[in-house]
Design goal:
Layout (H helix, E strand, L loop, with lengths): L1 H6 L2 H7 L2 H27 L3 H64 L11 H4 L4 H5 L6 H7 L2 H4 L4 H7 L2 E9 L4 E8 L9 E10 L4 E7 L12 E6 L11 E6 L21 H25 L3 H6 L1 H60 L6 H5 L9
Amino acid sequence: MSSDKDNFNMADLNASLNEEDRAGLVSVLKNKLQNLAGQHSDVLENLAPKVRKRVEVLREIQACAIAINNSVMNLQSQHDELEAKFFEERAALEAKYQKLYQPLYTKRFDIVNGAVEAEGATNEAAMDQEEDKAAEEKGVPDFWLTAMKNNEVLAEEITERDEGALKYLKDIKWYRIEEPKGFKLEFYFDTNPFFKNSVLTKTYHMIDEDEPILEKAIGTEIEWHPGKCLTQKLLKKKPKKGSKNAKPITKTEDCESFFNFFNPPQVPEDDEDIDEDTAEELQNQMEQDYDIGSTIRDKIIPHAVSWFTGEAIQGDELEIEDDDEEDEDIDEDEEDEGEDEDEEEEDDDDEDDEDEVKTKKKSSAGNKKGGRLQSGDGQQGERPPECKQQ
């Protein structure tokens, strides 16, 4: 029986009814709707005039509310369409200028790494004996290391041990990825004694790139040369006295390093596997990781020369100061509100004190007239609230 109901549809109904039957069915439906409308009108007619007037006013208010809501929803829909178009055009504009920047970045790469000499450079410096050593060096030594160390966010990540490896960094690039949405950083290294990789990458997958909301990050697995791993350190412990094993005990331990950037925090597939504290810690780690990646993308890569010379530091400090000033303004407003509340409380306390004095005077006068002190109730009435618990 249920299968017959499932197979029934409007096409079967139309096929089974002739034109006259369909007209009759439509007429019956119309009459039903009119009867329902009549019932509603009967309800209003049966109300008292004043009550009916109130209901009519309420209906008008409801209609206005619905109209306003529809209008707001329509405006929000128009705004969302424009915003989507803005993000689409912005992405296209960024892609366009990313291509226009490439020749400049290529030229920067060639000069930094000594592939070409900078335009306008002469050989006069080579004639100066004090500049002989500098003339032998190609390009700009430690260019990327210096640029990154001059940035406050990245400087906190770079240890002294990292500097030896980062001296071999030749270039950093980034580009947008579409599936899934996000961006990718590429770090190009010269042959070095620390690891085999010539390119280390870091990819960010975004849930919402425009917010932005990070889904996960993926880094390159670094192929360290034996004994050169910078993300771990070797610990040696002397054997205890009287121990049969005279050899020192060695073990490896994770340590701070910029190269931990390529081993980002992993998000478990099932959120139920982690407790609240672990989830909060993971969230903080992911935010810090994204902060490092976006700093390299938005600040270091496009303005590497300014970071190398230190000129960008001042501009970055001004941004931080502006943020601090905003925070201070908020704090001052909160302090002012707190002071106003304190003053109001002090005024209330003063009024209470005055009322107490008046009460005592009246009580004293009453006692003199009555020839005795008031007992119990009067004294308890003057007692502070916290004393009532005694």
